[in-house]
Records
---
Amino acid sequence: ATGDTRTITCKQLVDCTGNGTAAALAGFERLREKERQPGTFVYRIRPNADLSKFDAKELQARFEAAVKDGRLQRNDCRGSLLHYLQSGGNTANYVEGADNSTADARTETNLRGRAAALRMFRFLKDIPGLEKVRLESLSPEVGVRETYRVRGEYLITHEDYTSGRRWDDSVCYAFYPIDLHDKTSGVHPAHLQEGVVATVPLRALIPKGSRNLLVAGRCLSSDRLANSALRVQATCMATGQAAGAAAALAAQRGETPGQVPIAGLKALLTAHGAIVPD
Ligand SMILES: Cc1cc2nc3c(=O)[nH]c(=O)nc-3n(C[C@H](O)[C@H](O)[C@H](O)COP(=O)(O)OP(=O)(O)OC[C@H]3O[C@@H](n4cnc5c(N)ncnc54)[C@H](O)[C@@H]3O)c2cc1C
């Protein structure tokens, strides 16, 4: 590889790479599944056609034929083709094996995502009545759902998550259903029971054995099922605020993030508008 090497020194570091890259570079353990959730290449098409004139079954038969003869791949459009057209494509595809944890993997994933969009576009253009279909927008990158999680001082389990477990060092809430996408069966969210609100302990943001390092976002320390819920944006933001506050306190006090007084951390977060577990 080529490129610049820069040295940056800091008292505390918060790894928000989504992949635990900084934690791994510092030698801390990351967890990775053999089979990971598929990614999705978000793009929008404009059919430029009166969709009420199309027969859903006939469209679906065309899709099946194109998958059979190799023009398309099954996960280029999951679900009904008519719905795909009605919703403008959007998030209808799966990019299997999507990975953005290295430059090479990221490039390869993006190439496959764009190829999938191009396959669909060419296929649609050949359908009588859809000749004027347009590709309206493409996301800059394939959205990647799962790569690595760090192993932290605590690892949040599925049982912890779904029971709404509280710890003394719970620093933020989480709320999302267990939401694991499968390349064959899709996603079947399992909602939390009414009244159950999951939380994240500070220790799940501290790589095991580290001193001046935190993580925030989807790479927090959790098992696969818990992570399928914890990975969403609101929780990523809440962990980012909590990790940032812990890092600031640790830097001020000359301590490690694991040593900062939890009451002081919660007070700092609350003073900045965070919603913090009691
Ligand atoms: C298709 C799809 C749909 C989703 N839909 C929803 C939804 O509807 N609602 C929801 O809440 N969540 C959704 N999510 C989940 C959610 O968007 C992500 O899990 C979340 O944004 C992850 O946030 P993050 O900050 O941990 O990582 P990212 O948002 O991935 O941020 C990591 C950042 O670090 C940068 N980075 C990585 N490595 C390096 C490096 N070595 N050097 C410098 N920079 C680096 C990256 O470029 C990136 O900017 C979806 C995810 C996908 C893939």
Note: The chain has eight helices and eleven strands.
---
Amino acid sequence: RVTAIQPSEGRVRLEDGELLAYDVLSLAIGASVTAPRVSGGTLAIPLKPIDHTVRLVPELERLVRERGTPAIVVAGAGAAGVETALNIRARLRLAHCAGGRVTVVGGFARLLPERSASAGRLAAQVLAEQSVATKLDVEVGRVDRGRVRLSDGRGLPADLIVWATGAEAPALLGESGLATDRDGFALVDDTLRSVSHPNVFVSGDAAGLRHHPALPKAGVFSVREGPVLWRNLAVSLGAPGKLRPYRPQHRFLALLNTGDGRGILSYGAVAIRGRWVLRLKDRIDRRFMRRFGRLKALGSPSPQDRD
Ligand SMILES: Cc1cc2nc3c(=O)[nH]c(=O)nc-3n(C[C@H](O)[C@H](O)[C@H](O)COP(=O)(O)OP(=O)(O)OC[C@H]3O[C@@H](n4cnc5c(N)ncnc54)[C@H](O)[C@@H]3O)c2cc1C
């Protein structure tokens, strides 16, 4: 892993101490979640960066084996929190564990605050159907001796707490000397280039776009930035042509897997639930993953291939 970014020296430091010099640096280290300190008996899993999620299923299975009917708290009631809670419920069902308790805690007065009110209502209906409890307008405070303390003074038992709270900037960015936005993400221009260090490109959740400060931290944007990033890295390394701007779309489709063979589609004010929504999500995701297989087979594409 990279433990320090030193843009003034044009190098990064790796965890084994090696210093790696670069001509051009592409940073896509995602966002993080600052999970408050947890002590005594509760396991904590943050969902960002995304690779932490692979721990969820084995840990759930272990908890069911060891504790029978575990209590699980998901902190964060946005799309990731709701989707994760519903799929934890589905996993517990698969493990024949009907009694496990799953609770979503959200700091806003409604679910899915980043989506339409109708999507929030639909999510509330599905959570209730699937016996997932909700505690809204409260925040998770201390987690101690197997209990989560909420900001309103109430407490909840928790064998596992999953942090699905908002994306925060990785500390590495702030420590690096790269210009950052007010939330600490690396500030980039329309070409995804750092506004302070022109040979550093930052994309995905780690980037704060100067002209789109309210852009949500969602994979759809990271994916669409990919071809622009590829082209601009190549141009920075001497390929012919000019740097290209990335222009994010105004709205994006959210497809949530509700863990019951169905999904919720949310687009603008529209919110729909159905089996076909999950089929659509699955098709889109599988098509995306197949492209990685093709890349491996072909070797690295040239910038022209990606246009
Ligand atoms: C449960 C869940 C569901 C989601 N569903 C959707 C969805 O349906 N649609 C959507 O658009 N978005 C969704 N998102 C958001 C989406 O996952 C992120 O926006 C997207 O993954 C961001 O991509 P990224 O490449 O910037 O960062 P990430 O995918 O988080 O990848 C960052 C990578 O950098 C690595 N890294 C971090 N620090 C270092 C370091 N110091 N050194 C080396 N490597 C490092 C990490 O290990 C990781 O592999 C979801 C998120 C969650 C948690």
Note: Residues 25 and 272 are 42 Å apart (CA to CA).
